[in-house]
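User: Show me a protein chain along with its predicted structure.
Assistant: Here is one chain, sequence first, then structure tokens.
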Amino acid sequence: MAEEQSIAQMMQDMGKRAKVAAAELALASTDAKNKALLEAAGALKKNVRTILEANEKDLDYGREKGLSDAMMDRLALDRSRIIAIAKGLEAIAELPDPVGDTIAEWDRPNGLNIARVRVPLGVIGVIYESRPNVTADAGALCLKAGNAVILRGGSDSLHSSSAIHACLLEGLRTAGLPEDAIQLVATRDRAAVGEMLTMTGMIDIIVPRGGRSLVERVQSESRVPVFAHLEGICHVYIDGAADPQKALDIAVNAKMRRTGICGAAETLLVDESAEAIAIFVIGALLDAGCEVRGDDAMMALDDRVKPASDDDWKTEYLDAVISARFVSGVEGAISHVAENSSGHTESIITEDTETAETFLRKVDSAIVMHNASTQFADGGEFGMGAEIGIATGRIHARGPVGLEQLTSFKYQVRGTGQTRP
């Protein structure tokens, strides 16, 4: 009981300090925020060895826990990944500052001038698993958008996240911004998550990034509004008018480039008229080391294809496994996606622009693509510098949650003495 009280007190203290920092950060200059980001990026580059040593401790912990290969890949850092994290901060520094932007402005007949202006959300809570890079991405995005943030990384990545967080703090100190603007919950105790979900007076938005169990818990227990996606059950549909080489290149990349990310393809759909392309693509996936689970028609193409169960069509594998089936044209693909997708990302491969437009218009997912790999479902690839997550809901934010999505707005009304009759 005393330990639970201690966690509660710790989180309340963090929340109070975050509120104070958020008020200061909302008024911070773009130059100060950018300086903090660039200095943090420099600190990451200077401390590669320290971060790798911390990451090795987390990898040892992950091995002891028996984490899957996909989860270990999410957790692992190397020099190139750390440099990429630093470059991500530099890219965010180069992005326009959304705070204070006038979204719309108009004059009323009575002479009132009304402007809708972007403002920070306030304090953001980010709860994530394994990926230590989220510490930097989330901290940097919240900072640039004028928000304070409380980061609760997974127990697997505690040492790595702490080392990265230290670099962010160095940037804040150098820029003269409050260190409480980016706080890291330095405990593996899951009670801290429970506390965050009830901090309605201190946290304005919760963003969960992780597996189904984490996101389900956050969505069911949180009393704070949530930006989230439950799963990334992403589809690639190969149309009868697809270019065979494009179909192969995109399908293999969408599945195998990095199997453990939420934008990885989990189901391959192929038009019944494209059997020759299917043989080509399925063979390439199998040769690349991907397990294919298919319907009867797919199994007939290659004896290495295993039978798919009903559950496979709704499974996020996050591994070198894909389900595959034939469908009746684009409408069959749209129907399958509507029934089985998590609303994350879907892609059509076709040279028929009318068919492509039908798919883009009718598929109701956060991201819909034509002739492109689902692995592009990423804020950095969208030109946002980075993203704090992919939102599949329909309120406030949808798709990559970048700088603009981390702001709200207020109305500024300017008059010359008007009174209402």
